[in-house]
Design goal:
54% of the residues lie in helices and 3% in strands. The chain has 343 residues and is mainly α. Among the domains are: 133-226, Orthogonal Bundle (Cyclin A, domain 1), CATH 1.10.472.10; 235-342, Cyclin A, domain 1. Helix 6 crosses helix 7, helix 11 (250-265) packs across helix 14 and helix 12 packs across helix 14 (306-321). It binds a DNA duplex (17 and 17 nucleotides) through residues 216, 271-273, 276, 294-296, 304-308, 310-311, 314, 343.
Amino acid sequence: MTESDTRTQTRNPTQEQEQKQHQSDEDIRTCPECDGRLATDTEHGETVCGDCGLVVEEDEIDHGPEWRAFDSAERDKKSRVGAPTTNMMHDKGLSTNIGWQDKDAYGRSLSSRQREKMQRLRTWNERFRTRDSKERNLKQALGEIDRMASALGLPENVRETASVIYRRALEEDLLPGRSIEGVSTAALYASARQAGTPRSLDEISRVSRVGKMELTRTYRYIVRELSLEIQPADPESYVPRFVSQLDGSDEAERTAKRLLRSAKNNGITSGKSPVGLAAAAVYAASLLTNEKVTQSEVSEVANISEVTIRNRYKELLEAEESAPRWIILELLLESSSSQNTAH
DNA sequence: ATGGTTTTTACTGCGTC
DNA sequence: GACGCGGTAAAAACCAT
């Protein structure tokens, strides 16, 4: 029972109930030495004689987990030892949480007296939990981040970093004068870019309650004040999403990425919008792989005008033709790579 | 605020199905 | 004739200064 002892939470009464039952299910065999009753000691994984203390069997329990995991993410998912702390909850999930069901640890209903008591505890616990304005602020912001992230299909780690960024903004008193929505949106935008799964400003502001203007202002502010290091979005990171939205093949995806790489090496990408480049690459790739996709379809999923796609994709194809010179250019660029966004 | 750059809007012409 | 595509000019948006 060490596992449940370390927990302060009583989130899952039924599981512990099962464990109890399992434990009382003892062997009733007799000792080979003195015929005394044998007892199973589940704590140490031994079967011992109750009379003479002879250990009949030992190490019969595998103390390791009964599951297997092949990477750390899987391990996180399967391990149920302790509650993981998470930045997605305003108190990192460490505060006491009183269940809403009026049941005790064994799943039995409480008496009405107990119920009243628990209700009072719940009230007070909630008041302490979200005591000051910062906590309440954070709570709302994290809810907002969560909502937007799911609307955009962003993975959990992005939400986590967004939470961290927001938390930092809060700690550095960056909030006054700015809306909670604005800052949470900016935090999400920043973390999505940091994680290499960027969403364009348009996409973000579509699910956010704040307009694009406020978002960009807040975003810039946050990035500056927290000195976050966010590189300009890599066009390639948009490609997989666009290709899949257009039902393109892996072949097309690879081709698009190759085009972008050669374009980058030719130095024609600087100053151009990454989304536009990605869209153009996807379109160009669809031509090269004979997968019919129209410009308007690409412009639809990428939210980029057809004109931009036209302009970019021509440049991409030209760059591809002068491919052999990449290597030289690459070397030249790398020696003076400090300013590849110069303009 | 300003100037330079990029993107968008709107419109037109051309070829094909 | 609708559609996909290409081009252009002017407006709008963006960015560093």
